[in-house]
Specification:
The complex is a heterodimer. Chain A is mainly α. Chain A has 3 helices and 2 strands. In chain A, a hairpin with a 5-residue loop joins strand 1 and strand 2. In chain A, helix 1 runs antiparallel to helix 2. The radius of gyration of chain A is 21 Å and the shape is elongated. The two termini of chain A are 38 Å apart. Chain B is mainly alpha-helical. Chain B has 14 helices and no strands. Chain B is 73% helix and 0% strand. Chain B has one domain. Classes of the chains: A mainly alpha, B mainly alpha. Chains A and B meet through helix 1, helix 2 and helix 3 of A and helix 6, helix 7 and helix 11 of B.
Amino acid sequence: MDIDWATIADGTGKVIVAGLLFGAGLPLLFSLGIRLWDIGSGGEHADGTVTAGKPAALYAAYAVFAVVAAAIVIGVLYITQKSIDHYLGIQLF
Amino acid sequence: MSAELFILILLIVTAVGFDFTNGFHDTGNAMATSIATGALKPKVAVALSAVLNLIGGFLSVEVAVTVTTSVLKIQNKSGSLIDGLDAEKAMFIIFAGLIGGILWNLLTWLFGLPSSSSHALFGGLIGAGLAAIGSSGINWDGLVVKVIIPALLSPIIAGGVAAVGTFLVYAVTKNVRKKKKDHGFRWGQVATASLVSLAHGTGDAQKTMGVIALALIAHGTLSDAEIEQNGLPVWIIVLCAGAIALGTYIGGWRVIRTLGKGLVEIEAPQGMAAEASSAAIILTSSNLGMALSTTHVATGSIMGSGVGKPGAKVRWAVAGRMAAGWVITLPCAAIGGAVTYFIGHLVGGAAGAVVIFLLLVALAGYIYHRAQQQKVNADNVNAEWDEDSNSVVPADKSTKPKVPVA
């Protein structure tokens, strides 16, 4: 058997880092956006109190959502760069 | 028509059939959580997933011939067949391997087990290779490095990432109103599930393309050099992308149900965290030199989302049965592939190919017939999970013993 354990460990480490960064980091960012969106939109709460909307929080929420969306778009473009190059001849990265 | 061409055509039909089962077996990996939480209507979910699988299929331009050679040693360095292996024998190995893979996919679907289609294919090929050439025909190192180690690692990595993600999501949104939470996270769920579908199309359609390409190489109508120069013939890409999309649209409702309802009861934030973990890992792993099976990653993620949510419980009995299914996938598909090879080889030639093809059709028909008797479809996919039997088939209320009136 000729198995390169170092390469496997290296690959595994990279997958874990990328997984945590994109697989847990982006959901975290997205939840922050949801929280800001909830604070920003005001209205009636579970305890019956009614608050006014907070535009600043709402805009911050939209900004966070935009960052998440951009990260996904860039990610997909990065993954499909070879196909884009193949079909359209555009080299993105 | 020569016998070899006839075998090749039957083989390609079978490969497309495998691709189709690959599609419907794996719909749940992407869409089970969105269907379970009601983020998408069942039919809409499978249609969306199908379209994205189709697009994904066309996005795969990478040469995928290595899929077969990662477990079989039937090509030498220059790309032609190894000594002592003629075209007919090589095609029979691939043919029998595909049949072993399809039968295992159908059987696990009947029981609602989300097993890996890649493992079923690898298992079938290994079995057929062992039967035809013996131990020297198997790329054992490749089997360990590209199949077994990733299979052991992926549920753990994916489960861990999803658990961390779920925990963070719930911690951050603890005070968010439920209505806002559900609404927001459903959008997140649809987006992440779409990514998983796209990733599935790029990765899995490619496997069948690789198998067909290898069959053409074995037959002598295509060479490694030609693929290197011009890419895969377009008709292969169209066939494979189409078959996997159609399979996805048919929807493997039984597997969807196990993943969405059986393993854990899923809420929208969990669903999003699970699919985000799956998407991130499936999309990056192949670029980082460790290709993981979509099914293992998706299942690990869904389980992780159950571990990470405070107060949620994972049905370990279902998880255990699934894990057992994973362990036996390779050997069972291998037995299917080996037996099929023996039968085909015994009869030999075009007649042998017809015999094993008809055998496949008959067995597939029988399994389909069994499934039809206890249907799981878009209407009952979200029915309450039966805690007693843990069966994928929803308990039929009318057959339950009625409580006698005192």
